[in-house]
Amino acid sequence: MPIPKYETVMLPLLQLLSDGQTRKFGEVVPVLEDEFGLTQEEREQLIPSGRMTTFRSRVHWAAFYITRAELLERPQRGFLRITDRGRAVLAGNPAFLDNEFLNQYEEFRAFRERSGVKARLPEGTTELSSDSELSPEENLEMSYQTLRIQLADDLLIRLRNGSPKFFEQVVVDLLVAMGYGGSRGGVAKAIGRSGDEGIDGIINEDKLGLDVVYVQAKRWTNPVGRPTVQAFTGSLEGQRANKGVLITTSGFTNEARDFVRIIGKRIVLIDGEELASYMIDHDVGVAAASTYVVKRIDNDYFEEE
Fold it and tell me: pLDDT > 70: what percent of the chain?
């Protein structure tokens, strides 16, 4: 039999984790290989890049999509655990899991909008496939966006599980990479731990120090509410700053975002998703794994006089 597609792997993967144990991803793959009865040749078959076996890649993507629907969770990088929602799904004895099934969950639909899948897939198509109406370039673009979202998830897990000192280092490196504060040493000197799983300080907006920005960064898991944002806004006066940036590894409540829109001061709120995106864009904590250059015909070259 051919190596199962990732959607075919979804239900067996969820069932394997039904006991509630936190399992390492690397321990799950061989169990599923046995369950599907893969031959040794099938187990060793590699994806085109040669960086991973085909079946491991498909288990990886099955886990990724199920996690986006919150049937599984990743308590730390490389580990999987079933959620209460996942248990409820298994209690209904589904015959099959696929992306169409997962689309009933708001979190999964939001992911698809972020990755561009929902907006650009043809009617009746639930996922990228070789026989869809999408062009190869559209498939490539959406695959890139999906990989980027996954990388952002991994970054946030690392930030939340890391130490306060490491979080401070990340914020300093990111601010410098974005062009604030001048040198790393200068920013590091201006930033310090606040005692509430976060950091705060004043940095120069430009190298001459003509304007300053008050920065707070909170390594939280719960959303930041309006009272915290109001307190941050009040702190600007005491710090003689007219601009502020509030960063969190979690998110902001609607009330907090509404408050920022109605006040006179310039406050920028950066949630966990945006923080990870900035890290990716400015190469903080990430490194290039593969590069694909898409080339087209140079029409000027072929023009004859």
Answer: 87
Q: What is the total residue count of the chain?
A: 305
Residue pair 200/217 in contact by the 8 Å Cβ criterion = yes
Instruction: Please name the amino acid found at residue 138.
Output: E
- Residues 275-286 have a mean pLDDT of 95
The helix (H) or strand (E) run that includes residue 254 is helix 254-262
Taking only Cα atoms into account, the Rg of the chain, rounded to an integer number of angstroms, comes to 23
What is the pTM (predicted TM-score) of this model? 0.72
- Nearest-5° angle of CA 226, CA 232, CA 234? 105
Residue tagged 């120069």 (tokens)? 204
Identify whether the C-beta of residue 89 lies closer than 8 Å to the C-beta of residue 100: no
Question: Which stretches of 64-193 are assigned E, i.e. beta strand?
Answer: 72-73, 79-82, 191-193
Mean per-residue pLDDT over the chain, rounded? 85
Angle at CA of residue 188, ends 183 and 191, nearest 5°? 130
200-217 pLDDT, tens per residue?
A: 888 877 666 667 888 999
> Tell me, what amino acid is at 84?
D
The amino acid at 299: N
Coil vs helix vs strand at 160: helix
Q: Which position has the token pair 């903080």? A: 284
